[in-house]
Amino acid sequence: MNAPLPSPYPYSECAAQFMDMAGQERPDHLPLKLEGTNCFPSPGDIGTLQGLQNAISQVVGRVRHPVLRLRLALLLEEVMELSEACIREDMALIAHNVADVLYVAHSFPHSLGYDGAAIYNCVHKANMKKKMGKVRSDGKQLAPVDFKPPDIVGVLQSSKPPVAPSNDSARKGEKQQR
Predict the structure, then answer these.
(1) Could you please report the per-residue DSSP string of 62-114?
(2) Measured distance CA(152)–CA(122) in Å, rounded
(3) Disulfide: which of 6, 147, 173, 177 matches 143 by Cβ 3.0-4.6 Å?
């Protein structure tokens, strides 16, 4: 038996707080399809998506470190699949691909050995101070003139990555729950 996943998703509430602060719409429901079919692009989308794939390949090709190159390639591949799902307006595909993007994005800190939660919390606190900034025409909340960016270097220097439980400790916890 696998250990249960943490719930609720820890960053979701932070994102909701920021969207509320920035006045960004959070509708209860969007009238999108619920097909969940494979996300193959339609013929009209292929040219656009090939252009995106070419741009992704060029960017990834410029990254020299193999771990960074892999992580970036995986993340951009998932973003491209999310783009295809958004073009199709299929909520099941969008939800699946958002989860894939988050899954791959959360692998970055583990791959690089830093505490992703500490960085996320630092960025969230800074983002919440953007309330006094202007809002761009597309709805993006901009930082005010006196905005101080988060101290990422300080957080990296003062935090250690969380240690994932080994399979043995997960099994011990599983036995204790029985």
Answers:
(1) T--SHHHHHHHHHHHHHHHHHHHHHHHTBHHHHHHHHHHHHHHHHHHHHHHTS
(2) 7
(3) 147
* CB 130, CB 144: distance < 8 Å: yes
For the chain, the structural domain boundaries read 30-112, 115-178
- 151 phi, psi to nearest 5 deg: -90, 75
pLDDT, tens digit only, all 178 positions of the chain? 455 544 445 667 777 777 787 777 766 655 665 565 554 455 455 556 677 778 888 888 898 999 999 999 989 989 988 988 888 888 888 999 999 999 899 888 888 888 888 898 899 999 888 888 898 998 888 899 999 999 999 999 997 766 655 555 444 544 554 4
Q: What does the block give as tokens for 100?
A: 């894939």
How much is the pTM?
0.69
* Residues 85, 93 contacting (CB under 8 angstroms): yes
Count other C-beta atoms under 10 Å from residue 75's C-beta. 19
